[in-house]
Amino acid sequence: MYYIGITPDKIIDGLSKRYFYGIRRDDAGEIILERFDQLKDQTLLINRPGNFSENYPNFQEGVDFFEGRNINHELVYDNLNYEQFVWDSRFLNFYINDDGEFVAVIH
C-alpha cells in the first residue's frame, strides 16, 4: 500500500501519549476511572454543559491535571468532568487488590 504524505505508522509514532485516563465521580459519589484511546472513535467530554465560567479552560492534549479539588475537598471547576487526568503512551489496566491497594497493570 502506498501513501501520499504522512503514513499511519508516522501518525501513531507521533502520539507520545495515546491514552487518556480520567477519574470522575458519578451522581452517587462512586469513583470511576475511564480510559480513552486517541486511535479509536471515542468522544471525550472534558466539561459538562453549564455556565462557561465554571469550565476548566486549560485542557491540552498530553498535559496531566491533578487539581480538580481544593484543600477543602471542594470542586475547583464545577463543570469539569474529571477531577484528575493523565495521559500515557501505555495501555494500563487498574484494579483494587485484596489488600485494598490500587494496582496498575502495564501491557
- Please report the number of helical segments: 1
Largest sheet: 3 strands, antiparallel
Rounded to an integer, what's the Rg over CA atoms?
17 Å
Instruction: Tell me roughly what share of residues is in helical segments.
Output: under 10%
Helix and strand string, N-terminal first? HEEEEE
- Estimate the mean pLDDT confidence: 87
Instruction: Tell me the strand percentage band.
Output: 25-35%
Strand order of the largest sheet: 2-1-3
Number of strands: 5
Unreliable residue stretches: none
Instruction: Tell me the distance between the termini.
Output: 29 Å
Number of domains: 1
What class do helices, strands and sheet pairing give? mainly beta
C-alpha geometry: globular
Description:
With 107 residues, the chain is mainly β. It has one domain. Helices cover 7% and strands 27% of the residues. It has a three-stranded antiparallel beta sheet, with no helix packed on it. A hairpin with a 5-residue loop joins strand 4 and strand 5 (102-106). 7% of the residues are buried. The mean pLDDT is 87.
